[in-house]
């Protein structure tokens, strides 16, 4: 009950901010941070709960973005339909990728997911209907009332998506599905011997994770008014999602939220004060520090501090 009250308060605050006379840059940055929350939460369902490290985040994000722009160009579909269709296509891609790769383990699975990114990028690069290699300009329809700008509206939309993604991840963690995924992460052979339907659970995690990532990508063409393959399928999305989960802590649904907010806010500050090129360096340094000094992330540090304080 407390969680849902907190989620409702977050949404109310997001809507209030979007209607208030706040500097427009806040919503540009807020949209990026909230997108990172959705991607990190989605990545953690497969990478954190089940232990299958997925480097294919841009493939799912990109198919969501291109599904949205395809529907908009073809039939002027509303944003809600673009997001729903993007999530469906992401789930479908997740199912296909899962069927082909989930029997692989460790580095072999990770390499296979990277290959999916390059396959999807190549397909979109050679598809002229959606702009091909040069990209496509998106003429956005009038913004919905009561929002003044698209950025404010998309900020609220992404806040709703972040709440939905976190709620789903939280439910999975406390359900029998989450227990089964953690058993797979700890020892897949032992889980199979105990009767855990390992392949079905891994496929489920892959479908849900892919659907959420694609849903996060669907509004991007409206956010930028433009789409092109190189930036849409950029591997920086993988680094951001993976880094947020590791830095925050992969053992709990709240970990990716902490990591994404910290990392996303830090990246925005660095972009404004220094340079956007330094973003990857910031993530790299933080990843090295946390992997070496705090492999369980910020949540692990907090738990360790709590145990020490209670003695």
Treating each run of at least 4 consecutive H or I residues as one helix, how many helices?
15
Characterize the biggest β-sheet. Answer: 2 strands, antiparallel
Q: Overall pLDDT, averaged? A: 88
Terminal CA distance reads: 31 Å
Poorly predicted runs are none
Tally of structural domains: 1
Cα shape: globular
Q: Which strands sit side by side, in order, in the main sheet?
A: 1-2
| Rg calc | 19 Å
Helix % is: over 70%
Give a description of the structure.
This protein has 311 residues and is an all-alpha fold. The protein has one domain (2-236). The protein is built from 15 helices and two strands. The protein has a two-stranded antiparallel ribbon with strand order 1-2. The longest helix has 25 residues, at 150-174.
Task: Present the secondary structure layout.
Elements: H1 2-19, H2 24-47, H3 57-75, H4 79-101, H5 107-125, E1 136-137, H6 150-174, H7 176-186, H8 188-193, H9 198-217, H10 220-224, E2 226-227, H11 229-232, H12 236-248, H13 254-273, H14 279-293, H15 297-310
Helix pairs in contact: 1-6, 2-6, 2-9, 2-12, 2-13, 3-4, 3-5, 3-9, 4-9, 6-7, 7-9, 12-13, 12-14
Notable features of this structure?
15 helices; 311 residues; 1% strand; mainly alpha; 2 strands
Task: Give a quick rundown of the structure.
It contains 15 helices and 2 strands.
């Amino acid at each position: 009950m407390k969680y849902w009250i907190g989620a409702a308060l977050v949404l109310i605050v997001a809507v209030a901010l979007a209607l208030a006379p706040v500097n427009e840059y806040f919503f540009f940055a807020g949209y990026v941070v909230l997108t990172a929350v959705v991607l990190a939460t989605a990545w953690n369902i497969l990478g954190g709960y089940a232990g299958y490290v997925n480097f294919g985040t841009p493939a799912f994000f990109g198919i969501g973005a291109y599904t949205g722009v395809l529907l908009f160009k073809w039939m002027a579909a509303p944003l809600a339909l673009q997001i729903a269709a993007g999530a469906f296509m992401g789930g479908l891609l997740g199912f296909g990728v899962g069927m082909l790769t989930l029997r692989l383990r460790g580095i072999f699975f990770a390499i296979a997911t990277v290959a999916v990114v390059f396959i999807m990028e190549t397909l979109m690069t050679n598809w002229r209907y959606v702009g091909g290699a040069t990209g496509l300009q998106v003429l956005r329809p009038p913004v919905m009332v009561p929002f003044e700008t698209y950025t404010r509206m998309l900020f609220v939309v992404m806040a709703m998506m972040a709440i939905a993604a976190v709620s789903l991840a939280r439910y999975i963690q406390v359900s029998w599905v989450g227990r089964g995924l953690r058993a797979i992460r700890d020892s897949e052979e032992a889980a199979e011997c105990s009767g855990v339907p390992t392949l079905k659970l891994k496929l489920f995690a892959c479908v849900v994770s892919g659907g959420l990532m694609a849903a996060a990508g669907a509004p991007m063409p409206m956010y930028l008014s433009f789409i092109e393959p190189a930036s849409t399928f950029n591997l920086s999305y993988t680094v951001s999602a993976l880094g947020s989960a590791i830095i925050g802590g992969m053992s709990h649904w709240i970990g990716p939220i902490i990591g994404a907010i910290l990392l996303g806010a830090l990246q925005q500050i660095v972009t404004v004060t220094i340079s956007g090129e330094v973003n990857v360096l910031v993530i790299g340094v933080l990843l090295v520090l946390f992997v070496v000094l705090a492999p369980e992330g910020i949540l692990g540090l907090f738990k360790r501090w709590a145990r020490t304080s209670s003695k």
